[in-house]
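Q: I'm building a small set of examples for a reading group on sequence design. Run inverse folding on the following structure and report the sequence directly after it, with nothing in between.
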């Protein structure tokens, strides 16, 4: 019996790493990518030995090409692609300049869409593609416009991609986490107390966990009749007036 193969960009930490663990538990052969030497080394130490960990910058097309070639040689095809690599920048809109715009959109939008384009020939018929977007695209937080715009561009592409790839039975969906306790908060410049403050506004009264988001991705991977959809995992955030 052959095992399905999954590739997770931004898979060395947080949600991506949780998805890697879950899919490995479910019998997938797993490849994860990242660009931080510290998290890459931690992933190599702590993930199962047969999980392939590779350095790849989501902004780099040569990195995407090298990744595609290795997947082709090692596994032949991909059954699952989670486009999860991303960054968060929290800053007042008046401080947004060309450098900040380019950094965020190059990783969150250009990098994810062009990575999909590079890997598309490797996707098996019936494969599952999932984008990590974010509940903030719809609900909004002060200082989050740049990140939300870059992720929202992915969400707007999902229905068109789902229709275009449907003849190959490739399903394209999005998972949108709300407040989740992962390292991306600190990387985005938000202080630790912000997590507790925002948690107080979540109807379920707490941040989510990376594993809970991973379970949602696992559902989308296995849901053979779901495509072009967004699954929000946000503890009820956004409900009500």
């Amino acid at each position: 019996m052959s095992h399905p193969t999954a590739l997770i960009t931004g898979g060395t930490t947080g949600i991506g790493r949780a998805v890697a663990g879950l899919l490995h538990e479910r019998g997938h052969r797993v490849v994860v990518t990242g660009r931080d030497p510290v998290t890459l080394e931690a992933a190599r130490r702590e993930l199962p030995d047969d999980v392939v960990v590779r350095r790849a910058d989501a902004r780099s097309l040569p990195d995407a090409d090298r990744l595609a070639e290795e997947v082709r040689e090692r596994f032949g095809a991909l059954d699952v692609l989670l486009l999860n690599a991303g960054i968060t920048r929290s800053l007042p809109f008046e401080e947004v300049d060309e450098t900040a715009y380019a950094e965020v959109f190059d990783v969150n939008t250009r990098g994810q869409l062009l990575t999909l384009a590079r890997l598309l020939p490797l996707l098996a018929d019936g494969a599952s593609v999932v984008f990590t977007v974010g509940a903030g695209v719809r609900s909004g937080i002060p200082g989050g416009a740049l990140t939300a715009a870059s992720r929202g561009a992915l969400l707007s592409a999902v229905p068109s991609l789902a229709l275009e790839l449907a003849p190959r039975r490739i399903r394209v969906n999005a998972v949108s986490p709300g407040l989740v306790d992962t390292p991306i908060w600190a990387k985005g410049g938000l202080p630790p107390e912000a997590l507790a403050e925002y948690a107080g506004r979540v109807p379920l009264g707490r941040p989510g966990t990376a594993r809970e988001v991973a379970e949602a991705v696992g559902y989308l991977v296995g849901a053979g009749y779901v495509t072009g959809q967004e699954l929000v995992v946000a503890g009820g955030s956004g409900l009500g007036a």
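The mean pLDDT is 92.
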